[in-house]
Every structure is written in C-alpha cells, then in structure tokens.
Amino acid sequence: MQWTELVVFTALFLLVTVLGFMAARWQAGDTLDHLDEWGLGGRKFGSWITWFLVGGDLYTAYTFVAVPALVFGSGALGFYALPYTVVLYPIVFLPLVRMWSVSRVHGYVTPADFVRGRYGSHWLALLIAVTGIVATMPYIALQLVGLEAVLRTMGLNGSGILGHLPLFIAFVILALYTYQSGLRAPALIAFVKDTLIYIVILVAVIYLPTQFGGWGAIADAAQAKFDASEAASDGVLLNANNQLQYATLALGSALALFLYPHSLTGILASRGRNVIKRNMVALPAYSLLLGLLALLGFVAISAGVKPITNQATGRPDTNTIVPVLFDMEFPDWFAGIAFAAIAIGALVPAAIMSIAAANLWTRNIYKEYLKKDASPAQEAKQAKLASLVVKFGAVAFIVFVDPQFSIDLQLIGGVMILQTLPAVAIALYTRWFHLWGLIAGWIAGMGYGMWLLYNIGNPAIGKAHFAGSALPLGKLSLFGWHPFGGSTVQIYVGAVAVVANLLVAVVVTLIARKFRAFNGTDETQADDYHVDEDSDRVKPVAAH
Fold it and tell me: Where are the bilayer-spanning segments (predicted)?
C-alpha cells in the first residue's frame, strides 16, 4: 500500500466531491427539475466553461492511460490519436454550429431528437437513440479501466468483488453528485481535472527525459525493442502493414467522435454559436497535450517499466504503464497528484456520458413510447434515475467482464456510432437520402461491421472473435469474393462499414424515390435559419 500517494489522492478526490455537490447552486436556474437545466446546464455555458467541459469530455482517462500504453506496445501506430484530433475540429466546425442552431429553435436535447424532427420518423429516431446508448456504455466502462489502473498501482485493487470496493465507492460518490447537480457537476470539476493534467504532463515531459539521456536515447531504446519484436505492425515508424490502418482509424475516429451523444451534450449546453466557434479554434490545444502524453510510452520503454499483472486474468495489464512509470520515477506526493488527475479524468467524462445516455432514454424511448404526456419534472426525474442505472451498469461490466474485452467493445462502439453519420450529420445539410434508405443503410452498415468484427481474432490473448478493429484486407469478403486476396495490409473496420452503409442508403434512396415511397414528414428545415451573429438569436424563416 502506497500511503503517501493514497493520502494525496484521497484529498484531491474529496475536493472534487465537494465541488460536485456545490455545483447544484452554480449558475443555477429556477429549478433542476427540467431536462434543459439538469441535462444541459441551462444551455448557458460560456466559452471557458464549454472549453473545459468539452475538453474534459473528449480527452478522457482512457485516452491518458491507453494512448501511451498503445505507443509502448505498438509504437508509431499509437500516434493515430494526433492526426485524428487535428482534423476533427475543421471537419465538425460548421455542422456543430448548425446543430446548435436547430436544437436551440426546437428545444432538441439529443441527436435522436433532431432525427425525429428532421424525418418525422420515431423508428429512425429509435435506431439512433439505441445506437447512442449501446455505443456509449462500453465507453463509460473504459473510464473505469483508467481508474482501476491507478488503484491497482497504489495497491488498492485486487481480485473478486471485494477487490473492486474502492471502485464502487468512487462511483457511488459520482452517482450522488451527478444525480443532484446534473451537467453542472462535471463542468465545474473539469476545471480541476484539466489543471492537474496539464501540470502533471508538462512536468513529466520536461523531467523524465533528463533521467534517461534525452529524447534521442529514448527513441533509440524504443527502436531496439521493436527491432527485436516479431510483430509486423510495430515500430517507431509506420510501415506498409499499418499505414492504411493508421489513416482510416484517424479519419474514422474523427468522424465518429462528435456523433457520440456525450460530445453533442457539451455543445448543446453552450449559450451561443460564437462560443462553439471559439472552442473549435481553441480545443486543439489539447492535441498538443496528447502528443506529449503519447511520448511517455517511449519513456516507459527506456525506464524498463513492467505492467502490473491483472489478478483476475493472469495477464499483464498494459493500462498500468503510465501509473507504474510515475510510481517509479516521481516522489510519492507527486505520484499521488498524477494518480488523482487520472482518476478525476475518469469521473468527468463518465458523468457526462451517463447524462447523455440518460437524455436519450428519457426523450427518445421513455417519452416517445412509455409516457407521451410526461411533464418536464417527470422527464428530469427519469433522466436522473437512468443515469444511475447507466453508471452502475458500467461498474458491473468491469467487475464481471475481462477489461481487455471491454477495450475491444469500445472499438466496436466506434464502428457502431459511425453508422449514424448519414442520419445525423449529412441530414443537417440535405434530405436527399430517403427515410427507408437511411434505415436500410444503418442495417447494412451495422450488420456488415459486426460480422467483420466477429471474424477478427487474436490467438495471443486466446480470443477467436471481437479481438480488435484492425481488419486484414485479405479477410475482406464481398459475398464470397475476396478483392484483396492474401494481402496483409490492415484497415479500420468502421471505415469499411460506413462505406457499405452509404452505398446501400444511396441505392435504396434511388429505388424509393422512383416508386415515390413515403418519406416521413419534414418538421425541421435544417438550412432555414437566420442567425444574428452578435446576439446569437436564432429564428426560423419561411421554408422553401
């Protein structure tokens, strides 16, 4: 048991707990018994709050733990997170501003609300809502992977139910202050989380290289490790085997990230279009932090870090690479600060994700199918209860399922959420896709993507199916035809699945338009809004 680390960790954890409960009175409206207030913070967050909230939402504990762990194990491939976060913001700049405008006019809380209004189809909205909930659940669970890595390093986490007791306690506290304060809790705590993360990473990338001969010596040590490896896809540089995977994973991840409901929750909570624009310009500062963080994977190689063995599975837990590195190289008091930063970095996105999933359940399932006349207070109550279920479902997932398998499921979640691209993002600009084309495309992309993922195995960890998202092109099959033969080049499954989705959507749309099939009711003219850029007032104008 690392007592100094534990005391510092506990003190900072208690600080954010107090902030979480105090947040209920921070910029509070008349009541929290309304989904706009509890689930979107009253839709009045300014530039600084939105920057910390969205940054805290997108750059999670899993990112801070898993990116350097991937660099430690695979080398250059782990740096895919950098181009993906660089190209992300130009791609989503205009769509997010448009989504904010439409949602503000119509009172939309979720992406499924927009789809319901855009196409007048509760069935298509249901598909989007269920996809968002299912894709978000393993993402929440993965925040616990980062938290457990820290607890395991401090000697607090063992095997069995009792070994997970610290995790249960942390999430009970999270559940209580999120239930009381809603989105305001993670928004306020994000200030502490990001400040700690910046301090820890800047100290680490300045101090640690001096202990191992500088960055040149660190790179040489990494090169020596990968030269001795038999794997074809690792190395300090990309090679013919993983270049396509790197590019498609970066682009696919960029397209997927703001399709997740929790990403849109932070955007819809902002008070104006100009707030969003300023944030899309400023958020790449986190990418610089991420690049510095990724380099710690190479530092861990030079330091000779050995991951802690997971007692439940008997295999090394590579997610402990960064915590073990900090434990080895820093004084206990600073390691405690670093561990608190990672843990708080798990709680902030977990809270936002659970709120987003609860909003989907409340608005697009509960109110649509179970209680159409639900009052605002009933909606807020339902969302609070649903957020509890989601959180503890994620805890149960970690306790009873191999965490390595949960990481694979997060990659599956990315493949899944990409299938909402035509109905959510493209529909912001055009209704050319027919309602039945969107539904058929979703079915095709989801089915084909899951089938491809099912056939990806990894004998090294004893898994025959769902063992990753890198598809060897030699396994790509179109009705029994293998267009790439025995190629060993790999590609991200999500890219293949979303292309299949779009192709089917186009074909079915052409057929449906030819036969003039019913195409829903267009309640939302997404392009028919006039916005006063100075006041951010949005009003609909006459539809075409």
Answer: 6-24, 45-71, 77-97, 123-141, 161-179, 186-208, 246-269, 281-305, 333-362, 383-401, 407-428, 435-454, 491-512
